Amino acid sequence: MPDTIETCELPASALLRKYVYAGAYTDCYVTQIAASVSLAEYVEAFYTTVPFKLERFILKWVVS
Q1: CA distances from 14 to 11, 23, 29, 44 (A)
Q2: Residue 2's pLDDT band (boundaries 50, 70, 90)?
Q3: What is the pTM of this model?
Q4: Confidence at residue 46, expressed as pLDDT on a 0 to 100 scale
């Protein structure tokens, strides 16, 4: 079964909830994966993606 990404209702405790109350657009997505991933593994995977590295490069270039 391939992993799918689906839209879902914003959780009641979500930090974006204040924007919903203000009438702004928000969205929320969910996916299920068949593996257990620690927070450390997730953070490492996120911060080492190509788009994030590119963003860090641009920010470093702009600040310097």
Answers
A1: 5, 15, 12, 23
A2: low
A3: 0.51
A4: 87
- φ and ψ at residue 28, rounded to 5 degrees: -150, 140
Helix (H) or strand (E) holding 7: strand 5-7
Query: What residues pair up with 6 in beta bridges, in sequence order?
Result: 30
Residue 10: closest CA among 2, 1, 24: 24
Rounded to whole angstroms, the Cα distance separating 17 from 23 reads 10
Query: Could you give the CA distance from residue 23 to residue 46 in angstroms, rounded to a whole number?
Result: 30
Six token digits for residue 2: 């391939």
